[in-house]
């Protein structure tokens, strides 16, 4: 015989309903047409876990070119930090031609879905090394970089100000991990008035002589597919990132997924991938690799929505 006990059953049901309302993730941005997810439930569970932990346990790690900066605008490609240097103030026409030839040779290899990262790696080293050698030959002047950035068509993604300002106000560190040119990257952020104290950059930096002329690039070469090495050595040493095991990671390449490898004892890691080019060829590999994939989405709408949700806990340590 089964006994029904309404005075117990009803309150339990009500409590469960209230608990569902308190823990569900209200994020209409995840329903945008540009969003793809292999497991939406896991994404929402990760966001809820991050929210419970609060802003004081969060860090954001992001690529720069074609991730924080736009891929295209009005049908035209937006220049990367390397491409911004393609300015007659800095390099001559012959150098421009050679850099474009290198782009046409190596970029198809970088985004080739049929090749593994291991197969691509030596080609990326060749590409970056040759480009840097060309730039060094041009004897680029440090005092001309700001003007080159100002004259370029570079653009950050729509919603960038809310992204940078929100992280700063919530005291959440932002680590920008870029295979681009760090000096140019910093100038882009500076000219957009969002280079806050919580921003840390790991990138390829120029080494200028005492007269301000480029003579080399500093340290270890960083390219698309060796970011794990930099994450383990450089990022892990940043004291500002310690005690923050929850990570929102943003990138546009499968190689960007290793940027969080330097995080000590990671707890919850949510990865967002911008799929900008060759969508059909790369869609499957991106959906299988990233938690959230944004297809030809030139905005920061989804990352900003995730951050609002996580930081809404009110914990701003």
From TrEMBL:
**Principal location listed in the UniProt entry:** cytoplasm
Subunit-structure text: Monomer.
Instruction: Supply the EC number(s).
Output: 3.1.3.5
GO cellular component entries: cytoplasm
For this chain, one GO molecular function annotation is: magnesium ion binding
What reaction does this catalyse?
N(7)-methyl-GMP + H2O = N(7)-methylguanosine + phosphate; CMP + H2O = cytidine + phosphate; a ribonucleoside 5'-phosphate + H2O = a ribonucleoside + phosphate
Q: What is this protein called?
A: 5'-nucleotidase
Function field: Specifically hydrolyzes 7-methylguanosine monophosphate (m(7)GMP) to 7-methylguanosine and inorganic phosphate. The specific activity for m(7)GMP may protect cells against undesired salvage of m(7)GMP and its incorporation into nucleic acids. Also has weak activity for CMP. UMP and purine nucleotides are poor substrates.
Q: Which UniProt key words apply to this protein?
A: Cytoplasm, Hydrolase, Magnesium, Metal-binding, Nucleotide metabolism, Nucleotide-binding
The protein's location, in the record's own words, is: Cytoplasm
List the GO biological process terms.
nucleotide metabolic process
**Enzyme superclass (EC):** hydrolase
* Pfam family for this entry, one: UMPH-1
Q: Which domain of life is it from?
A: Eukaryota
The UniProt family comment states: Belongs to the pyrimidine 5'-nucleotidase family.
Q: Which PANTHER family match?
A: 5'-NUCLEOTIDASE, 7-METHYLGUANOSINE PHOSPHATE-SPECIFIC 5'-NUCLEOTIDASE
């Amino acid at each position: 015989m089964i006994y029904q006990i309404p005075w117990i059953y009803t309150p339990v049901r009500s409590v469960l309903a209230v608990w569902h309302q308190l823990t569900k993730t209200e994020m209409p941005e995840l329903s945008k047409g540009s969003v793809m997810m292999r497991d939406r439930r896991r994404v929402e569970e990760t966001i809820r876990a991050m929210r419970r932990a609060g802003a004081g346990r969060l860090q954001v790690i992001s690529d720069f070119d074609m991730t924080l900066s736009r891929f295209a605008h009005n049908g035209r490609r937006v220049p990367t930090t390397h491409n911004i240097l393609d300015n007659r103030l800095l390099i001559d026409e012959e150098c421009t031609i050679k850099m474009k030839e290198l782009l046409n040779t190596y970029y198809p290899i970088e985004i080739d879905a049929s090749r593994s990262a291991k197969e691509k790696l030596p080609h990326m080293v060749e590409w970056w090394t040759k480009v840097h050698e060309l730039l060094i030959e041009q004897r680029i002047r440090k005092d001309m970089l700001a003007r080159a950035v100002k004259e370029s068509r570079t653009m950050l993604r729509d919603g960038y100000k809310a992204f940078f300002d929100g992280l700063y106000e919530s005291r959440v560190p932002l680590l920008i991990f870029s295979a681009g040119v760090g000096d140019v990257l910093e100038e882009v952020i500076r000219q957009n008035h969002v280079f806050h104290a919580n921003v840390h950059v790991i990138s390829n930096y120029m080494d200028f002589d005492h007269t301000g002329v480029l003579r080399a690039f500093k340290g270890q070469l960083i390219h698309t597919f060796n970011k794990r090495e930099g994450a383990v050595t450089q990022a892990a040493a940043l004291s500002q990132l310690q005690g923050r095991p929850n990570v929102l990671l943003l990138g546009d390449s499968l190689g960007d997924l290793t940027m969080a490898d330097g995080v000590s004892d990671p707890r919850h890691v949510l990865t967002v991938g911008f799929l900008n080019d060759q969508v059909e060829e790369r869609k499957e590999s991106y959906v299988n690799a990233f938690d959230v994939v944004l297809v030809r989405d030139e905005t920061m709408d989804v990352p900003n929505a995730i951050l609002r949700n996580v930081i809404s806990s009110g914990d701003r340590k």
